[in-house]
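Please, structure for the following, as tokens.
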Amino acid sequence: LNQKEMEITADDSELPWTIVFGHHSVFSNGTHGDADIFTRLYWNWFLEGRVDIYLSGHNHNLAHLQHRKSSTEYVVSGAGGKSYRSSSEREKLNISAASVLYSYNDLGFIWLDITKRSLTIRFHDSSGKNIYEYTKKR
């Protein structure tokens, strides 16, 4: 596997995007916070930097996070039916070990536009208005 990966990554312009979906976040600034230390260590050891995007829910907000200088984007999209609107809920928000590039604590959703050369993440509020956009290029 390692040799095959080296052959493929020698020219990463031809690689398909690697997107991992999971219910629980590895990193999050929501009320559930980051995954436990053992899960994060496992993730960091095996997958971080080998995955373009880790898309999760569980926390009831929209967020884009970056861990260190990793090439993996951490995106939380859990605000489809519930959000952190009340002040008591917002007091329970956590600080993540990852840097928060964007966070939105009301209802909304995420839209991905994927082409061979770019992957665009668009965050929308409940009315559909684009409130944040990030593009990753090859």
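The chain is about 15% helix and 35% strand. The chain has a mean pLDDT of 89.
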